[in-house]
Design brief:
- The structure is a single chain.
- By secondary structure, the protein is an alpha+beta fold.
- The chain is built from seven helices and five strands.
- It is elongated.
Length: about 210
Amino acid sequence: MSLTRRLLLPPCAAMLVSLAACGHGSAAMTHATPPTAPPSAAEKPAAKPAETPAPMPTSDERLAQALDQLGAKRGPQGEVLTLPSGDFGPGRTRLRASAASELQHVASVLQNYPNTDLKIQGYTDDRGNKSSDDRLSLDRADAVKQALMKDGLDVTRMTARGLGSADPIADNHTRTGREENRRVELVFSDSTGRFATAESQDTKSNKS
């Protein structure tokens, strides 16, 4: 509106024009986007529920783990560590140095488990006569026993047996099989003659 026309308007008309202009501005303010609220502080992540601690391994389980590191295998009798015939000279009963060193580790482990006993069982193939096989297998088992005694293991915790050609683990008709059958087995048991690790592990796996 030009200045001339505004001057010609009566006072009340000029007032209406002014109010209309104010009203338009108010409407513009009403429809304006409200200011964005400041971001709230980052929420802390929810605390994780406390995990149930795993049960502590039993003495038998800890011993089984230690024997596994030595190369023992689980079988019907429990944990068995096998010394091959190569640990002795051909037809001899004297332990080689490498086998004697391995037995030092066995003695060290058993000293930490005073309730565990040891059965030392010697075997041969079936090529010799029974009397000589029984004697050779017993002498080798006794050599292992003597070495463990030298390493500090109490003699009352060990028994040595010569079983000759009994309980073959391989075919005696092959050279490789006969070599496997000529062995000394270290069977780890409790004071009652049993070592239930293999049985208890099988039971646990069947239940899980």
